[in-house]
Every structure is written in structure tokens, then in C-alpha cells.
Amino acid sequence: MGVSTIIENSFLRSDFLTGITELQATDILNRGNRIRLKSGEILFRQGDPAHKCFLVLNGRLKLIKLHEEGKEAILRYIGPGEVTAIISVFKEKEYPATAEIIGATEAVGWDKQTMVQLMLECPPLAMNMLRCTINRLDELQNRYLEICTEQVEQRIARALLRIMKQSGRRAEDGIHIDFPLSRQELADYTGTTIYTVSRILSAWEKKGWIKSRREQIIVCDPHSLVLFSEHP
What we know:
Blueprint: H1 3-13, H2 22-30, E1 33-37, E2 42-44, E3 52-66, E4 72-78, E5 83-84, H3 86-90, E6 98-111, H4 112-121, H5 123-149, H6 152-167, E7 168-171, E8 174-177, H7 183-190, H8 194-207, E9 210-213, E10 216-219, H9 222-230
Helix pairs in contact: 1-2, 4-5, 6-7, 6-9, 7-8
């Protein structure tokens, strides 16, 4: 993918480049390190020193948190135009989670020194970084409240709607989540079991709200899911 195509796609999808000219965007991207990875590869690993933050240009990754007991929790999916690891890099901490690649993915990464220099030269970039960080913290807070206060059916409905909004592709039979999403991964994302996810998805499929195949979910009736997430 050429630089001009990447910049055009990034402008369309990224809050990271809001208010930034094409010339500035070219300079920002060119001063980072371009990385191409295959599905299943690791961009960064939990516990490693956080040397770089990343902007996903195309493809997708998932952030996985490994607990001491060996259980995994999926914190978030990161799609095109989104940034990750900003806080860890600026605090010079370890990466708090592992970033695993989903499908062929291209990203660009900057170390702290480069990013600080870019923000000094391009003040809108600093504001965009702050906005992205605040939005991410708000999302994590909302998900924490969901886990603490909501029934599991609501959590799964909200999770599907959130993923659909980030990664949905409209088709005749509904909105396709455009990356492989297994029931186990949905369970890891919502803090429940694969048995519970399977039971709930099967019930929703009978109602015509979704269609579910192997590692693929199609949302056929998002309006019903929205109503259910608010009034189960």
C-alpha cells in the first residue's frame, strides 16, 4: 500500500490525524517505523519495556491481558486509524498487555523522543493524543462498570454493538463483523464463559437478531440489540 493511500485511509478513519494537513501527516508517518505482521504474530508483549506506541494503518490487533492464574482477558480490539500503548510509552512503563495480530496488519510506531518532538512541531497532534487517551480511559471505565453492574446478557449485547460499530461491514443479510471472532474470544472479552456466550447467541439467533457461524457473527437486527442492552 502506497503512502498516499495510507494517508487517505488514515484521514478517513483516524482521530489521531484530526486537524492535521496532508503534508504534516506524511512527515508524521515517515518519521515512524513501518511494521508489517502476519496473523497470530505479536506486536508487543505484556511485561516488555514499552519503547513504542503504534498507529494501526490497516488490519487489526487484539489486546490480551494474562492473569497470574494463566487466564486470558481480551481488553480491546484495535482497528485501522487507532493508536495503542500511548500511556505506557510516555510513562516509560512496561506494556500492560500483549498485542496479537488479527489478519495481515500494517502499523507505524514511534518512540517517546520522536513523538514528543512531533507534538512540539505539530500542536494538533498533542491534542489528538490527549483526546484518544481520554476516550480510551472512558471506554475502559464504562466496560468496568458493565462488568460490575450489568447482567451478562447486557454485557454481550453491548460488546457486539461496540465491536460492530468499530468493525462492522454492511451487507444484505446484516452487519458483518469483519474479522474472525470466536465464541471463546467473545467470552474472554465480556468476562464470562463460552457456555454462557453460546447459550445467549443461540437464543438471539432464534429471534433473528444475529447469525453465527464458525468465528463469524452477523448482526441482523442491531435495533433489537440496542433496546435489549438498555432494557433487558
